[in-house]
Amino acid sequence: MSVNLTLLIIMGALYACGIYLILERSLTRVLLGLMLLANATNLLILATGGYAGLAPLYSKDTAAGDYNDPLPQALILTSIVISFAVTAFMLGIIYRTWVLARRDEIQDDVEDLRVAETPSFDAEDDAEIPIETSEFPLTMVGTDGGDVSDHGSPGDPADRAKVVAGGKEMPAEDAAAEEKPGSQNVAPTPEGDAK
Amino acid sequence: MNIASLAPLAVVLPILGAALTFLLIRHSRAQRAVSIALLSVTLLLECFLLASVWDGGTFAVTLGGWIPPFGIVMVVDQFSSLMLVVSSAVSLAVLVYATGQGMADGDHDAPVSIFHPTYLILVAGVSNAFLSGDLFNLYVGFEILLTASYVLMTLGGTGPRIRAGVTYVVVSVVSSVLFLISIAMIYGATGTVNMADLAIKLGELDQGTQTLLHVMLLVAFGIKAAVFPLSFWLPDSYPTAPAPVTAVFAGLLTKVGVYAIVRTETLLFPGDSLNTPLMVAALLTMVVGILGALAQSDIKRLLSFTLVSHIGYMVFGLAMSSKAGLGAAVFYVAHHITIQTSLFLVTGLIERRGGSSSVDRLGGLAKLSPLLALLFFIPGMNLAGIPPFSGFLGKVGLLQAGVELGTPLAYALVIGGVVTSLLTLLAVARVWNRAFWRRPTDAEHPDPVLLADPEDPEALQPAGAGRTGMMVSNRTGTARRAMLMPRTMVGSTLGLVVLGVALTVFAGPLFELSDRAAQDMLDRAPYIQAVLGDDTVVPPAPALGGGK
Question: If you average pLDDT over every residue of chain B, what do you get?
Fold first, then answer.
């Protein structure tokens, strides 16, 4: 079986250029690369048909081995039609990209970048669990039947933890409430300094 | 005359439907009726096909009157007909869902008139790939479904969809070129593209050539099936498409790739020459995929990653080359098509009801819509493999087969499978906790529609429906809520969830069917003799070293 070396070399060159081009960022070049790859593959299929022969039209006097193998050519026809459709569609997409973004380039994925920038700390999953997890705080009852829970009684301000905030002493619970989002205390002052 | 000789109709009917709906492009009501009716008939036909091979038997249909090794054949066996039935049932549900969405939104978001013909062509391509007994026809089936999927992916031509579409198209075309190159080389080596004929002739090649062809086919199908190192295109491109499109892609397209890998591994290249690399790929697919899912806050992206991850289970099953493993993989494919599609459909509903698919913006959906919560909860738990659902049964089957195999790698995969299952549960539970259970006010950036007073009709105007401009002041709040969750969309999602539960209820017979299918595929003789004639001598498959 003789091999058509010219076709093989052309096929190799087409594959090389095609692979180079699809690695580009510019969509038009990617399209050209895809077209080269498709055509190189068509040449490869042609090469698998074996050596050149007569057109496969049946006549009584021709020996079976003299015909060309028609099947690869049928496969090539199909593949040409398919790559034609894909090329047309890609052209449509490239035009649409140009209309939308005025750029002939693959755009970055916004959500990908956002996920990549998200810190591994998740406020909801990783926060320390507050001591009281129930929505219905029950008074804890000690062994003597008395109230031993540590939430303190509101009528006894002297027992409550205090913090120094904004130059004055205030109960810790109130200070925490004021630091929550939505509180007026966290909005920046017109001067831009936080007290 | 057998019902199986009607198998080509599974491809022809959807294509006819595509032509009809294209003619009816200006009559959307007639379009809907035609496409739903034709797809229902196709589904019915495929149910008959499945029933005819339920107890065993493989039928080949030769097209155009050519004698088998030369013409195109379509092969109906248990695996292909099971895939046909599940895929058509799923696509019918998605079609109903999409028409419901189109009717509710006034077809503004997407030119739905183009949707119907394209969708039917996609279904035809999927059926063609499942039925094909000819490698080149399999390629054509792939191309039909891919070309249709390019159009569906970029429906509406918005910026994000075009961006995602470019990635998708380029990756798919490259994988198709690889597939075509492998076909050319296989034809060059053997002189045939008929799969039954190849099953005999490929075994006669020397080992090096066989491995080369085998690897090339696996890489081409691996891209389509999104097996780990080749899976990065999937979570990038799927989530931007419209909800029903993503749902059908997630359910069907990757499974066609898995189907092709199964045929490659059992029919074309039996034996265990590449089982070790396949198992490693399966392990990495499972673990890397699910770790990716945990990092996502968008439900659609999260589900795309779980999709990749669970492809690993199927590859694990088929890479064991044992009857138990392959049977479990067949069952798992059927289960996963249904579950993954219903989850994506539910996400579409969440997006409508809650105004967003990002868990940072959602909250309190369980209170707003208990039905939606139920629709998410059942397939979610099913995906994670919580007993007694079919996901659990499929995974148990796979793990048992892995333990039976008993190699260190198989044990690593068993452990990886359990870990992946738990991590899937974590991912699903995070979505559940945030989107459904917490108060809307606890969300980082709650969507206004969640905070709205349910009795206030003005506030219930959703972001999606607002664009239609159909809102007029005399509408009642109930009507608005109906716009948010149209009955057809909820109904079709419910149908799929029920189908998923049915897979659990009828898991016994289904598992027996998958086992018989696996036995037939490993035997190879039923397939080859159905295509090439009963007196064909089937060369024995190379001894499986992986077993005992």
Answer: 84
**Domains in chain A: how many in total?**
1
In a domain, A61, yes or no: no
Does the beta-carbon distance from A115 to B295 stay under 8 Å? yes
Q: Domain containing A90 — which CATH number? A: 1.10.287.3510
Type of residue numbered B69: P
Say how far apart CA A184 and CA B196 lie, in whole Å: 76
Q: Is residue A164 part of a domain?
A: no
Q: Is residue A178 part of a domain?
A: no
Mean of pLDDT values over A24-46: 91
Looking at the complex, report in whole angstroms how far the Cα of residue B430 sits from the nearest Cα belonging to chain A: 9
Q: Is B295 on the interface with A (CB under 8 A)?
A: yes
Residue A33 lies in a domain: yes
Decide if B181 and A41 are in contact by the 8 Å CB cutoff: yes
The amino acid at B110: A
- With CA atoms as reference, the chain B residue closest to A43 would be B184
Assess whether the previous peptide bond of B388 is cis (omega < 30° from 0).
yes
Q: Please say if the pLDDT value at position A176 is more than 80.
A: no
Mention every residue, 6+ apart, whose C-beta is less than 8 A from residue A190: none
pLDDT (average), residues A118-135: 63
- The proportion of chain B whose per-residue pLDDT surpasses 90, expressed as a percent, equals 29
Secondary structure (DSSP) of A21-39: HHTSSBHHHHHHHHHHHHH
| CB-closest option in B136, B295, B298 to A75 | B136
Q: Which of A30, A100, A115 sits opposite B296 (nearest CB)?
A: A115
Q: Where are the domains of chain B?
A: 3-461+475-532
Q: Domain of A26? A: 5-53+69-109
